[in-house]
Amino acid sequence: MAIRPGGLDGRVILYLHGFTSGPQSHKAQALGERMRQRGLDEHFICPQLPASPREAMALATRLIADHGVGTVIGSSLGGYYATYLAETFDLKAVLINPAVVAHLSLKDFVGPQRWLYSGDSFEFTLDHIEELRAIEVPILNKPQRFWLLLEEGDETLDYRHAVARYAGARQTVLPGGDHSFTRWEDYLDPVIDFAAMK
Q1: Do residues 98 and 106 lie in contact, with contact meaning Cβ atoms separated by under 8 Å?
Q2: Rounded Cα gap, residues 105 and 128, in angstroms
Q3: Less crowded by CB within 10 Å, the N or C end of the chain?
Q4: How many CB atoms lie within 10 A of CB 13?
Q5: What's the rounded Cα separation, in Å, for the pair 72 and 81?
Q6: What is the residue-level pLDDT of the chain in tens, covering all 198 positions?
Q7: Could you tell me which residues come within 8 angstroms of residue 110 by beta carbon, excluding any fewer than 6 positions away?
């Protein structure tokens, strides 16, 4: 189902940060700044996501409905979220070193956690793992809507899992690097253009 209300005709980018991260992350800040430089301030949304995946998806769904989002960009866990949202609402998606099976890869993190930028603590629970399982997308209906950005040096997630998982999608796989995707600034303009904002 497609949601395209709002006055910006589906040209808004929604950026979804990774586990324990936030809008203050380097990637979010760099993309927001580049969009400001291009006069696209009003086309960029980057919220602090709740710890609960169910609540995070409820927030993202409201933002998509209210702001005419056409592209979701997600890093790590945000890439897992972006996959679900793109499939559910017929959006484009850019995935940066995404978590492929988040409910499995995050099992070791159940317990007390701390948000990286605010320092506030939160509890990551088994219920959250089940919420992640509930939004898994086993098969992409339109892989051509996706652009996968990977660095082979990712020390957190095996990039080969994403290569296989997103077969049929546009894929950029770079040697070296790490989980932060070190060459993100090289891709700011191409990503904005991918969202049809030339």
Answers
A1: no
A2: 13
A3: N
A4: 25
A5: 9
A6: 344 444 445 689 999 999 999 999 999 999 999 999 999 989 999 999 999 999 999 999 999 999 989 999 999 999 999 999 999 999 999 999 999 987 777 888 999 999 999 999 999 999 999 999 999 998 999 999 999 999 999 999 899 999 999 999 999 999 999 999 999 999 999 999 999 754
A7: 124, 125, 126, 128, 129
Gap between the Cα atoms of 24 and 74, Å rounded: 14
In this structure, what token pair is assigned to residue 135? 């939004």
Which residues does residue 170 pair with via DSSP β-bridges, in sequence order? 147
Q: Is the pTM of this model over 0.85?
A: yes
CATH 3.40.50.1820 matches 12-194: yes
Domain boundaries, the chain: 12-194
* CB-neighbour burial class of residue 34 (10 A; exposed 0-12, middle 13-18, buried 19+): middle
